[in-house]
Amino acid sequence: MKKLKQKNNLNNREAILNDSIPKTLFKLSWPIMVGNTMQVLYNLADTFWVGKLGADSVAAISVGFPLVFLLISIGGGMTIAGTTLVAQYTGSDNKKMADHVAGQIFSLVIFLSLIFGAAGFIFDRTILGWIGAPANIMDEAVAYLDIIFAGVAFMFIFFVFTALLRGVGDTKTPMKMMVFSTLFNIILDPFLILGWGFFPQMGVRGAAIATVLARALAGLYGVYLLFKGEKGIKLYAKNLIPDFKVQKRIIKLGTPSAAEQSIIALGMTFLMGIVSEFGTLAVAAYGIGNRILSVVMMPMRGLSMATTTMVGQTMGADDPDRAEKIAWTAVGLTFSLMMSMILVTQFFPAQIISVFNDNPKVVAIGVDFLKIVGLSFGFLGVRIVIGGSFRGAGNTVAAMVLAVVALWGFRVPLARLLSNYFQLGTTGIWWGMFISNFLSAIIGGIWFKKGSWKEKKAI
């Protein structure tokens, strides 16, 4: 069995370096898409069961989301460096260094999780006060966040596990673990939140405990698999001892990705502020539009992450021409797939919005969102995949700059300008989103085409 698994890992590398590019992209990306879908179900399950307790409880777990998202940004950003480095060392057939980097990523991220978890646990009430959390939900919000912060190490462990396996080209194992974790959380939620059976009703605390337990089981089993070494990467105790030279490289690669996600979170909050100026119906329509957009982005992100792995391994194997071919193939596939969704957004927008809210005004605003923003789905996909290509080559700064320019250089200013100065209202915001997606895709394509990313690898 062990030899068979090792052979599968070698086959992954061989396919990435030599096999059909579209076939391999699909093979790597579809499990990531399934995993992303599970993440959406994870959040929906918590909201659904907590919703049985009332609006205040839902607000209590929602108000602290920016803090949780910030943690996810930092942890996920640092582990992106693991995917890049492990992919490049795997491509260069240097398993010893791939294993060493895996150990360094693991020890660094666990250290960071303990620091951030402790800080969040101590200061969450203060930060919620800064955010402006209503007094009537403050205690519940703090109770929820205290448990989440106490268990944040398990969340980071799962990030590491997922990133390292993606680096060697194994996307199916993280998917299976994500499916297990999600189903476990969904099953556990009503027992802990509502007090089914012999369990006491713990409310929002129950939601947090279910989340931490589900992450812990998946994360600890992932650590077991890494120490066992049958998935293409192996953790050795000696590699967990800090090697500051390697960790410095990890931080250099990971910090731009962590900053990128954090800045995007801030920008999206600012954009919500612009939308809210046009009333609660506009906010409702925007919220529905974003939910739909999050579903549309699943295949984009799946292809982007698969591209990161393939470009990373190919660059490690000193084949930048194939790396470039992989990137442009992924761009073409993503653009074609996303543009095909235009038919849905143009011909059935009202039916889609009505599934979530049948208020005529909300539907009307939401229809405008889908008809305008929907036209740019292909360009958004191009920008995201090009960002993944830059990360695979080790140029995480370029990926960060591209994302920040798209949001802060175009989207936020244009939304403000078109909606207020030109008095287009919410329609101006939607056109700002369209233009930002279009321009950032063009800039990303030109930047990538210049080819300067070929000159320097991460390893």
Automatic annotation (TrEMBL):
Ranges annotated as spanning the membrane: 28-45, 65-89, 101-123, 143-165, 177-199, 205-227, 263-286, 292-314, 326-349, 369-386, 393-410, 430-448
UniProt subcellular location: Cell membrane
InterPro entries: MATE_fam, MdtK-like, Membrane_Transporter-Flippase
Protein name: Multi antimicrobial extrusion protein (Na(+)/drug antiporter), MATE family of MDR efflux pumps
Keywords recorded for this protein, A-Z: Cell membrane, Membrane, Transmembrane, Transmembrane helix, Transport
Membrane topology designation: Multi-pass membrane protein
GO molecular function, one term: antiporter activity
NCBIfam families (UniProt xref): matE
Pfam family, one: MatE
Organism expressing this protein natively: Halanaerobium saccharolyticum subsp. saccharolyticum DSM 6643
Domain of life assignment: Bacteria
GO cellular component: plasma membrane
